[in-house]
Amino acid sequence: MVTSVGKILKLLEHIAPLSLADAWDNSGLLIGHSDREVDRILIALDLTEEVLEEALDEGFDLILTHHPLIFNPIKQITTETRIGKLIIKLIENRISLISLHTNMDRSFENGINRYVGEKLELEDMTILVKDEAYVGYGVVGNFSAAQPLENVVATLKTLFNQKTIKLTNGTLDKPIRRIAFCSGAGADFIEQALSEHADLYITADVKHHESQLVNGSTMTLLDVGHYESETVFLERLKALLDEQIALKNYDVFTMVTETEKAQFKYV
What we know:
This protein has ten helices and eleven strands.
């Protein structure tokens, strides 16, 4: 049975419906034709030059990313710009591009935040910033029993494959029971985490002045890195997609990128 880009889009609707995406976002089919045949899908956080070369070398005809390649308005598509080069190369090689961004972020059922909460073994999880039932950003939940921050940090380092994590407003012997988490850039939700009486808020991309919002409070803040907080979910996304593919008996191979790396490294 021939599988098309359009059929894959329908499967993804069962995982993270496009209706969940924020109005400012640009999720969905970004490059390609819905009738184009799909045999091999490569999953990545971003479409980088390395990921595209990997797709070309391994014969992938569809790339599924979390972050949209086309986000801000562009006036030209030429080889003079990085994004232009990528777009042209995709089109020339008949590779389609789909992104699941805020629709995946805001899905409580299948999204990144609940997945990480489950990995941390949080109980009584709810949405941190709820827009409607089962839709919103982040999660908040509790450990069955308080544990020292040092133990939580060790768990996060293993989960996110990190050697160092930025910490403010807390010591490693502090007992932690209630945790808020938001993948990616979650500094906008520090005040919501405070209002939830979280002992610890875990997120990424926190600026200096944003971090000062926790000063004088009882909440500790950890910045685990944007890439690290989201790339952990790629294998889960592959599993969710594989389940949908199997239900339809489609003959499609999926793989998580082996070439993508964090934008920053510690030196």
